[in-house]
Write a structure and sequence with these properties.
Elements lengths: L4 H14 L4 E2 H7 L1 H7 L19 H30 L5 E4 L5 E4 L14 H11 L5 H17 L25 H10 L3 E5 L8 E13 L2 E8 L4 E6 L3 E7 L14 H8 L6 E8 L4 H6 L2 E6 L2 E8 L3 H6 L5 E5 L1 H16 L1
Antiparallel strand pairs: 1-3, 2-3, 4-5, 4-8, 5-6, 6-7, 9-11, 9-12, 10-11
Helix pairs in contact: 1-4, 2-3, 5-6
């Protein structure tokens, strides 16, 4: 009789939690009864040759090798499904590569232990409200489960997070296909590979990134992480990721900051922490976002205005988006950066 999946998952979790060192697939396969059963080619197949195998030397050996390969595939599929299921249930499973290049798996107790949770009514209501924000199918299930746990931790059944605010329904929309694979990669600490198109760039470029955190800022989702190709921290806007997000490699090569300041980093790249000013000419009736940021606006006539705007990192990429409606007057380095970007776009 096949061992129930729940029992198999429990045995795998206990093995990973009880191990003092990372365990390889081979060791887990030999330690868990369900995997031993899955690895068997079939009742009596390993010991008894098939019809006609004994009469033809070599044919029996080939058939046994084929059955052994099939059993390996069956085990690998079962193990990968079980590992993903445990991670979905919240178990933190680390992937470690030893000096011989063999991959091992470990679930550290300190990474899978939570302190006692005590919530007052206001805290529980706030978390209950947050659990209702997500609208995506995958996150909705997790949020629903979390809400049930909050009920058990002190959120009264009669407490309605929307009470008194029936007309308001907070949402965090996610339209980018890259969100879900990046969310899982951040959780599992898995490096990823994707194609990224920078602002005003004609073509996307491949990026190999160690993902740290995702955050929504001013209606857009951003990923913060370590860009292996650039050797430095970078922030990526999800709407500029093209194609599929693929897992690539195991383990991080750079330390993960205790606090990942996605919003502050994006604000810095967008020039919102600027301590300088730039002088630009803007076509009348165009560039309203620039006008909203302007410290001074002066009409020049002939359909042009002169604006003084904050100047910080990333302003050149923003100005390029307005095309021929913007002309940079000063500083000279900003004018040169904008011209370089426009030439790159023109070349295609």
């Amino acid at each position: 009789m096949a061992i129930a999946k729940a029992e198999r998952l429990m045995n795998l979790a206990l093995c990973l939690l009880g191990a003092r060192r990372p365990l390889s697939k081979r060791e887990l396969r030999d330690s868990i009864e369900a995997y031993v059963e899955a690895a068997r080619p079939g009742r009596g197949e390993a010991a008894r040759p098939g019809r006609g195998e004994a009469a033809r030397p070599g044919r029996g050996e080939a058939a046994r090798s084929e059955r052994a390969a099939g059993s390996d595939d069956s085990f690998n599929r079962m193990f990968e499904r079980d590992k993903d299921d445990l991670r979905e249930l919240g178990l933190v499973i680390e992937t470690v590569e030893n000096i011989d290049g063999e991959i091992g798996y470990l679930a550290r107790r300190d990474s899978n232990r939570l302190p006692p949770i005590t919530l007052d009514a206001e805290e529980a209501a706030a978390l209950g409200l947050a659990a209702k924000v997500w609208q995506q199918a995958r996150l909705a299930g997790a949020a629903s489960g979390a809400l049930q746990k909050l009920r058990a931790a002190g959120l009264p059944e009669e407490v309605d997070p929307y009470e008194g605010h029936a007309a308001l329904e907070p949402r965090i929309p996610v339209h980018e296909a890259a969100f879900e694979p990046l969310m899982l990669a951040c959780r599992d600490r898995r490096p990823v590979l994707f194609d990224y198109r920078k602002a005003a760039a004609a073509h996307p470029e491949p990026r190999h990134v160690e993902p740290w955190a995702l955050e929504c800022w001013r209606g857009h989702w951003y990923l913060a992480g370590f860009d292996r190709g650039r050797g430095a921290e970078r922030v990526f806007r999800l709407s500029r990721i093209t194609g599929k997000v693929r897992s690539r490699g195991t383990g991080f090569t750079a330390p993960v900051p205790d606090v990942v300041t996605v919003r502050e980093t994006v604000a810095g790249w967008a020039g919102e922490t600027a301590d300088r000013s730039a002088l630009i000419r803007l076509r009348s009736g165009a560039g309203y976002p620039l006008r909203a940021k302007a410290a001074k606006v002066r009409e020049l006539g002939d359909g042009w205005d002169e604006l003084e705007i904050p100047y910080g990192h990333g302003l050149d990429a923003w100005l390029v988006e307005f095309g021929p409606d913007v002309v940079v007057v000063e500083p000279a380095e900003l004018r040169a950066d904008v011209m370089d970007r426009l030439r790159a776009v023109a070349k295609g």
